[in-house]
Design brief:
mainly alpha
């Protein structure tokens, strides 16, 4: 249990969370009601939406597999490990910013499920960005 509290343990947990987040993208359209929402758009718009969704899910999985499988290597202080930590920190830090700028309160306020999802994602992106940022700062 204490191993999970180490920086390596936190990196692995973040990796697992990102892999799960990527897998959730497989059912996200149904959870969000996108088939009905996209039905009135052109075929091109629907296909682009689903293609982007697939690649976002894939990026989550791949970005999660790095710390899940290679946490010690990321923390070793090599140029590659440091570059990967910097990239993950910037990427997930920007995702945290987007949670507040791209998704304004009018999209979720007043809807319990969307409010809960917004708060959960704020906590998730805060934790993910903080772990990568701390790991970046702590590497030799």
């Amino acid at each position: 249990m204490t191993a999970l509290l180490t920086l390596e343990g936190q990196l692995r947990l973040v990796g697992l969370a990102l892999v799960v987040m990527g897998a959730v993208h497989a059912v996200l359209p149904r959870l969000m009601g996108w088939p009905a929402d996209l039905a009135s758009t052109t075929l091109l718009t629907r296909q682009v939406s689903y293609a982007h969704l697939f690649f976002i899910g894939l990026v989550c999985v791949l970005f999660g597999l790095l710390p899940l499988a290679l946490a010690p290597e990321l923390l070793a202080g090599t140029r590659l490990g440091t570059a990967l930590l910097a990239g993950e920190t910037v990427f997930w830090g920007l995702r945290w910013v987007f949670q507040f700028t791209v998704f304004p309160a009018r999209l979720w306020r007043g809807n319990r499920m969307r409010t809960a999802a917004h708060m959960a994602l704020v906590l998730l992106w805060t934790w993910v960005a903080a772990v990568f940022g701390y790991a970046l700062a702590a590497t030799p």
